[in-house]
Amino acid sequence: MNSPSGKTIWITGGAGYLGTPTTIALDQCCAKVLCIDLPGKAAALVKSANLQHTVPVELDVNDPATLPAAVAALIAEHGAPDGLAHLTVATSMGHTLEDLPAETFQATLDRSLVPTFVLCRELAKSMQASGGGSLVLFSSMYGLVPPDKHAYREEMKPNPIDYGVSKAGMIQLARYLAMHYGPDDIRVNCIAPGPFPNPVAQAANPDFVNTLNQKTMLRRIGRNNEMLGPVLFLLSDQASYVTGQTLSVDGGWTAW
Amino acid sequence: MTNPFSLEGKVIVQCGGTGLLGRELVKAIGQAGATLVVGTRDPSKFGPDLERAREARVEVQVEKLIVSDEDSVNAFRDAVLAKNGRVDGLVYNTVSRPMKGERPHADEWRDSMETNATGLYLTMNAFVEVMEKQPTGGSIVNISSMMGMVGPNMANYEGTDMKPAPDYFFHKSGMINVSRYYASVYGTKGVRCNVVSPGGIFNPEAPQPDAFLEKYNKRTMMGRMANADEMNGAVIFLLSDAAAYVTGINLPVDGGFTGK
């Protein structure tokens, strides 16, 4: 089957809106899941969803300085993982392009691309020793195409440029790492989600949701349980010859 | 939780099932729980494969299908419906490679057009017509190739008598974009349409020459050709409800050949 059955998987942002159904699905097929999120979030999910194989981990994966020691400690305690789903995001929502301070743009990259690189390098090192693995990074449709200015109402701020640039960087990070670690049987791929606004955002902007619907071939926004299939597939041995690729899960947003 | 990749309860139609890749798909789609109907030019040739499928405890229906012949395609579709009442997935794996070499006669180009272009068109139309009327829609998975994405690297073929022909590059590329067309036009009807683009597949029965393997393998990220069964996961993923929000994509399964 396409699931990463019996494996040890780490998922960052695993207790967020997009991560939660995936963490629950991983819990049901994996030997062990490390659900990494901000303080309290992962533990709350493990409790509320009654997860049996999931260890909640409080860790700020966006800090490259503390990552290597934190990763080493987790590996020492739980062993080398077979796979990583890296959902954590860094963004500067709320700025217009004109208002975005240069330091904020810099901070977004510092808290997304740089720590992702450090995290992947640390995990790949352990996977080299354990015989391979699968790293799944998260890009976005906005790492492939810019947000459509015309889709936003006057008072709304379009999805910011530093976010899109960091998400575009994920795609190249995946390709570069895939090339570098291919001989070690470590596969690296990206998922580029389309529109998956959370329920709060949906309720606040019903007209905007309708605009998003119309920008996909399926004429609807994504549901958060529609991300688990692509993640499980790329983590599993059924994707053993898939590497260096970006899989769009966007209802056709980027295909027209 | 139910297995999101299960094809249990789904009727899947696979066109072309006797080749290296097709044989593996037959087994895997059947094992994923689908009711599988294989359309093939000469069902009698499918005998040994049917045996293999049965050994793998997979029940397969086999029907005659000549994809370039509209009457044959429609008769095939009617036979599938008469037996199963519905069609949830279509895998277009039929391919014809009549051209050899770089500049064969245009008649061979026309011949290639019949199966690889007209056949694809007729088959997708016949089954999309069924899927668009079903409340649950359907999923089309077209088997293209990395050769529909990039040109041939002729250095790979030096020292061998292998000669990539131009029609393959034309049809596999066209297949990728016409799939986006079907994804868009039928998206509102719940029909998804995606492509899997395999990289080079190692043939254990007739191995590619060493001179080719040595160069080709280095041009993948993983340092090897694909095994024939390594396309199964991608096809089953795209057929299944696990890919409910995936449409209009091309998924290369090429060990990183096109990722570099």
Distance between the termini of chain B: 38 Å
Tell me how many strands of chain B there are.
7
The end-to-end distance of chain A, rounded to whole angstroms, is 32 Å
Highest CATH level, the class of chain A = Alpha Beta
Q: Mean of residue pLDDT of chain A?
A: 95
Q: How does the overall form of chain B come out from the CA principal axes?
A: globular
SSE succession of chain A: EHEHEHEHHEHEHHHE
Number of helices of chain B: 7
Q: Provide the spatial order of strands within the biggest beta sheet of chain B.
A: 3-2-1-4-5-6-7
Largest interface: A-B, 46 and 45 residues
Oligomer: heterodimer
Q: What order do the SSEs of chain B take from the amino end to the carboxyl end, as H and E?
A: EHEHEHEHEHEHHE
Low-confidence stretches of chain B: none
What percent of the residues of chain A sit in helical stretches (DSSP H or I)? Answer: 25-40%
Strand content of chain A: 5-15%
Total count of domains of chain A: 1
Looking at the structure, the CATH topology of chain B is: Rossmann fold
What would you call the shape of chain A?
globular
User: For the report, how would you describe the main beta sheet of chain A?
Assistant: 7 strands, parallel
Radius of gyration of chain A: 18 Å
Structural class of the secondary structure composition of chain A? alpha/beta
Structure description:
- The complex is a heterodimer of chains A (256) and B (260).
- Chain A has 256 residues and is an alpha/beta fold.
- Chain A has one domain (8-255): Rossmann fold (3-Layer(aba) Sandwich).
- Helices cover 40% and strands 15% of the residues of chain A.
- Chain A contains nine helices and seven strands; from the N terminus they run βαβαβαβααβαβαααβ.
- A seven-stranded parallel β-sheet of chain A has the order 3-2-1-4-5-6-7, with helices on both faces.
- In chain A, helix 6 (161-181) links the parallel strand 5 and strand 6.
- Chain B is of the alpha/beta class.
- Chain B has a single domain (11-150, 165-202, 229-251), classed as NAD(P)-binding Rossmann-like Domain (Rossmann fold, 3-Layer(aba) Sandwich).
- Chain B is built from seven helices and seven strands, in the order βαβαβαβαβαβααβ.
- In chain B, strands 3-2-1-4-5-6-7 form a seven-stranded parallel β-sheet, sandwiched between helices.
- In chain B, helix 1 (20-31) packs across helix 7 (232-239) and helix 3 packs parallel to helix 4 (106-131).
- The radius of gyration of chain B is 18 Å and the shape is globular.
- The mean pLDDT of chain B is 95.
- Chains A and B meet through helix 1, helix 6, helix 9 and strand 7 of A and helix 5, helix 7 and strand 7 of B.
